[in-house]
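In this supplementary section we document a worked example of the pipeline. Step one takes a protein sequence of length 156 as its only input; no multiple sequence alignment statistics are reported here. Step two produces a three-dimensional model, which step three serialises into structure tokens for compact storage. The input and output of this example are shown verbatim.
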Amino acid sequence: MIVREFIQCFLIDEIEKLKKEHPFHAFTLMATGIEFLGKCLSTYEWDVDGKSREEFNLALNNLNSFNKYRGIDQLYNKLRCGLAHLGIPKIGIKLDRESNSISDTPVVLGCEEFYEDFRNACIEIIENKNNNIKKNLNEDYAKIDGTITGRTESNK
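The serialised model returned by step three reads:
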């Protein structure tokens, strides 16, 4: 599976199915998915450690679909790290099923609205709308045959 197909299948299609029944799990995948989108914009290799914050913020600050989230203080820490490491957002972020209320304190992120923005950001990457992709989106990325195997330098 090439990178473009991976984005379509796992970041768009699978999360769309999940958000309907399990919106809070969908948030976890979208938060880490934002980091993946940042990897597409990054000059680092796919599997370089220690670049999570930088790549998350690269996506947030360079994909037009995320414009409205740029002013949210510490979105990486409160959303992505909270969900990835604690299973819940950190103080300052609330998750809802429906729509955002980003001018409130705490910030409320709605799964339906956040997903639409995330989906549009994925499409920006797939279509290279901003002409800023640093990775070859047509390269082999994952092997799926009943199991999934990633393609990195260590397991090509």
